DNA sequence: GAGTGCATCTCGCTC
DNA sequence: GAGCGAGGTGCACTC
């Protein structure tokens, strides 16, 4: 049996199913009217409302409202979930040790309780990160400009790590700050801080923001100091082009 | 009827229920074996596996695996969700306009499909943020030190906003950088940047990190420049102490 | 276990 | 709608 579901269960049935789901390390979900209190890194209270509760076998605990991507309350993986009955009411509890965090959910009414034993070993294959950009530039320096020769990745300075360090065709030092999406003023400020570390070579170092685009404010800030912007999209090619077609079925 | 659920539905039943749920603006959930492709800000592929799919009435779309807090694939609120049948297979699609993003989910097998019409108007009450800290210090400046008088909140400089500006009992300028949790080197770097704007008063300005704690690295960086750290917990008192007790039921 | 930095960050706010 | 910064950020990675 891959899953169990029960409509409008009694509190004791609900308790039993959740308890069973926890023991079997299933993904448990409830549609329920509930309220929640959280205490830990912050403190919060959530009044009564209709929500969806999810408990995963890794200890993740999520309460989702009917809007937003983020759960309204949650506990991270490795939290310990418990269920108990108190005065005929089902209470869910999730505890984390470090940092100490505690979430308690009182369930007024359950519409649907279910658990699901589906396991999923697949990992997401994703591309288009800053890291992918760095690798692409390292392999194809000419994407920055003809004659560019990168010398260091993650070059350490007192102000942090420079994404890519290199030299142009005239041997002039180049500092590249990569962003996988539109660069803002922060990226420029970061670049300027790195340049501070090379002040002795004043005027001899080129600072370049490499990103798909840049905000107007950031461009202004950049040109103020004679720095440069190079438009470059992060690579969006998955390493293994897994066939995802209808043939599969 | 607050919800519908169907175990092991046929593809066409599944399609019908999802379609109905979308029209009724319900929260739709599926336990299903599926695969997904995403393209937009990045690109990703997720092979076949057992997962939980959630579509909210605000357009949020989530695919959850049996682990982690974050969905493995998702679309943000205001995305447009569609369902269709193709060669007897149910396909879910979610599209966002700006930025252009597209998520497509092919559903191989559905164990449970359901939708839920529960509405939830409750907002989360939460405290313990940096903002709460700022308000607390503004009201009780003596928490920083005897004689401290704050003069500005969110004071604008060329490097950003200073959380709190004020003077000590000797009339010396004080720049406070607040963090609601352990301060790291970034907080110190930020503080140092603000201080740059006051360099003409060199030695006459005190820079202080205010946080519950600080990393060792950050403390070192701080003391290097004769700056200070003040340990202060963010306030954790909810504005209205809403009664959340079992009496409610 | 703590510290650091990226993210399809999300989300709320301001302009 | 774009830009900016905080977050119970989460998460992977390093040390």
UniProtKB/TrEMBL annotation, chains A, B:
The lineage of its organism: Archaea, Methanobacteriati, Methanobacteriota, Methanomada group, Methanobacteria. One of its GO terms (cellular component) is cytoplasm. The keyword Nuclease applies. InterPro entries: Endonuclease_NucS, NucS_C, NucS_N, NucS_N_sf, tRNA_endonuc-like_dom_sf. Its main location: cytoplasm. One of its GO terms (molecular function) is DNA binding. This is Endonuclease NucS. Cleaves both 3' and 5' ssDNA extremities of branched DNA structures. It comes from the Archaea. HAMAP family: NucS. Residues 129-246 form the Endonuclease NucS C-terminal domain. Keywords: Cytoplasm, DNA-binding, Endonuclease, Hydrolase, Nuclease. Signal peptide: none annotated.
């Amino acid at each position: 049996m891959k899953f169990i579901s029960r409509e409008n269960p009694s509190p004791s049935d609900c308790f039993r199913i959740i308890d069973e789901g926890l023991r079997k390390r299933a993904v448990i979900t409830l549609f329920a009217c509930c309220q929640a209190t959280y205490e830990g890194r912050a403190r919060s209270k959530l009044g009564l409302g209709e929500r969806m509760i999810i408990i995963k076998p890794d200890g993740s605990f999520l309460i989702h409202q009917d809007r937003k991507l983020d759960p309204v309350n949650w506990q991270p993986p490795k939290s310990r979930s418990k269920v108990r009955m108190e005065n005929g009411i089902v209470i869910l509890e999730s505890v984390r040790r470090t940092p100490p965090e505690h979430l308690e959910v009182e369930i007024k009414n359950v519409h649907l309780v279910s658990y699901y034993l589906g396991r999923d070993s697949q990992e997401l294959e994703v591309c288009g990160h800053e890291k992918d950009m760095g690798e692409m530039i390292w392999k194809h320096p000419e994407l920055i400009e003809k004659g560019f020769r990168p010398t260091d990745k993650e070059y350490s300075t007192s102000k942090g790590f420079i994404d890519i360090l290199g030299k142009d065709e005239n041997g002039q030092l180049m500092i590249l700050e990569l962003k996988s999406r539109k660069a803002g003023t922060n990226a420029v400020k970061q670049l300027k801080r790195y340049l501070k570390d090379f002040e002795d070579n004043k005027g001899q170092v080129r600072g370049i923001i490499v990103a798909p685009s840049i905000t107007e404010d950031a461009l202004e800030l950049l040109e103020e100091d004679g720095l440069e912007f190079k438009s470059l999209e992060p690579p969006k090619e998955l390493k293994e082009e897994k066939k995802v077609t209808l043939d599969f079925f």
